[in-house]
């Protein structure tokens, strides 16, 4: 395959059952990846390739006074130093953000303002990576500094509501929280915080930009090829047809790659200047600033229940930091609007702008942080009410989404509670905290509810019968490492009753039919539904061709009597009568054998509240003297509609749980309160779990049939795994030690501090 052709992947031969939906088809991209032949954005090579280094601001607020580029330009191999002072002017100043996730407020060297430490302020392009890095080091930047606003508490005075919270109103209110609060038997008032975190997929962001006349091609690590195309054409003043974005493989994304950030446009600008292809790889330390983060949240709760353990009041007020250049809200309170039955609920979201990088979607944005706070508060109130935390949740189970005023399309949360508790042995929990000890170790059990919306967007797809009887399936969606290559192969194989090895799949390219952002856990539901529909259409189309073709043995058969089985069209009640796809293809020109669809969510989409649910049970061991926390055991039960691939689906859920543990106990970007620089912008000091930190995780998939969710019956599994886990761990730590830690991550020192 040369750099400019679209990648086609076909599964190795496997048993027919593996290709069915729900089967455990192994990754069709596995062999390429294992052999090092899967090419990611930075692996592509073009003649005349040059290398770019992104240069970042070293102050958090102010103006660029001057940048001395002379030594950099004199360095051997340096081809271009692009700064505000010489960068080409873009139409509309390049700052008018289009709606996320397709585009964000970018820093494209169009003005001299500095809004945060780490903001892109220059790009150095050279013959080699080494020369571009050295050139970047040789820049002399002078700033007119201004005092940055980095104090969350001080800036809270100017907090403002966002325009929306992930498509919903930022504030909500039902019933009368004040009245219910004043009459309640049990009350909890508590504040929880979650820290600044940065996405660190194994593959950092990377872009290769190449111009051919007025045509721009980008090889980009992205969750949204069509969104990158839109952003690039808008920012550079091009027609959409002038831009192509290619992204066959992505080495992890998690929301950070849902938006096209500054470096993508800067690479294209630089390539136009040097008139050669430019490769720009974001360095690991650069992942901590100009490409999004999960913002710090402060979540204030008032939660009350009556004497029977029924929730009577819930108030969830969220303050989250954002940048000074763009409002982006972590919508942590959305889950409080529906997760439990409660008549009196008030939620608010407020933004606290600081001189920091723009925050963004990070795996289960809102639910991951919000479920930590809500599930901690539920645990605290259960204890106060003298109820087992699981029993407390059962009593407050909601059969109806009172936030949206909609019935659930399906909900199997009670079964998740039951099956998870059973497998975990929850009934053995001693209700008294700090009462279970094994030697020097305090043992704690904790649990929490998990949930994530089941969303779907319109997607297109194309299917073509090839002369050799293979079917080419094309869809401009993406595989972030999540298994899309495999899953879509499986959907097509299942629908066409072909072995997976006869599906030739193409994804990850704007030359392919439009698909939405691969975010929000909706790729299977969106692109999967399009592939499902296009395969159904192809089958009908081929049957139609056969029955109207005098040369076909099926000529004249009513097409409701035609079925496609094992590569043959045949008459349902006379299976011997029929023909193979190859023989049909041999008689028809290519143009006849291609179908296109645009699959949109049906009318049911608006009539139901659609969510996945789950229950997470955790055991923790805490060293009584040293506060060291170990997690020996996690059991999690999920109801996610149909699980489409038993192998990749399991991996997705496990990955989410691991990240939940990481959120609970490890991750924390430390920002210098004076200068706004991230002090641990590397994977040595930004803590993440290693294998030794991860226990055996038992997954239970609760079967669920959801007739309203889409043709595949799948709810999406990318994000629910992270939700609930941090809450369950915090609750288990409390149960083990009697210490309630309300600020993540829970560390040794926070625990020892709480013991004093
Ligand atoms: Mo996800 S945070 O929508 O990639």
From TrEMBL:
<dbReference type="Pfam" id="PF02738">
    <property type="entry name" value="MoCoBD_1"/>
</dbReference>
<feature type="domain" description="Aldehyde oxidase/xanthine dehydrogenase a/b hammerhead">
    <location>
        <begin position="35"/>
        <end position="147"/>
    </location>
</feature>
<dbReference type="InterPro" id="IPR008274">
    <property type="entry name" value="AldOxase/xan_DH_MoCoBD1"/>
</dbReference>
<dbReference type="InterPro" id="IPR000674">
    <property type="entry name" value="Ald_Oxase/Xan_DH_a/b"/>
</dbReference>
<protein>
    <submittedName>
        <fullName>Xanthine dehydrogenase family protein molybdopterin-binding subunit</fullName>
    </submittedName>
</protein>
<keyword id="KW-0560">Oxidoreductase</keyword>
<dbReference type="Pfam" id="PF01315">
    <property type="entry name" value="Ald_Xan_dh_C"/>
</dbReference>
<dbReference type="InterPro" id="IPR046867">
    <property type="entry name" value="AldOxase/xan_DH_MoCoBD2"/>
</dbReference>
<dbReference type="Pfam" id="PF20256">
    <property type="entry name" value="MoCoBD_2"/>
</dbReference>
<dbReference type="InterPro" id="IPR036856">
    <property type="entry name" value="Ald_Oxase/Xan_DH_a/b_sf"/>
</dbReference>
<feature type="region of interest" description="Disordered">
    <location>
        <begin position="156"/>
        <end position="180"/>
    </location>
</feature>
<dbReference type="InterPro" id="IPR016208">
    <property type="entry name" value="Ald_Oxase/xanthine_DH-like"/>
</dbReference>
<dbReference type="InterPro" id="IPR037165">
    <property type="entry name" value="AldOxase/xan_DH_Mopterin-bd_sf"/>
</dbReference>
<keyword id="KW-0500">Molybdenum</keyword>
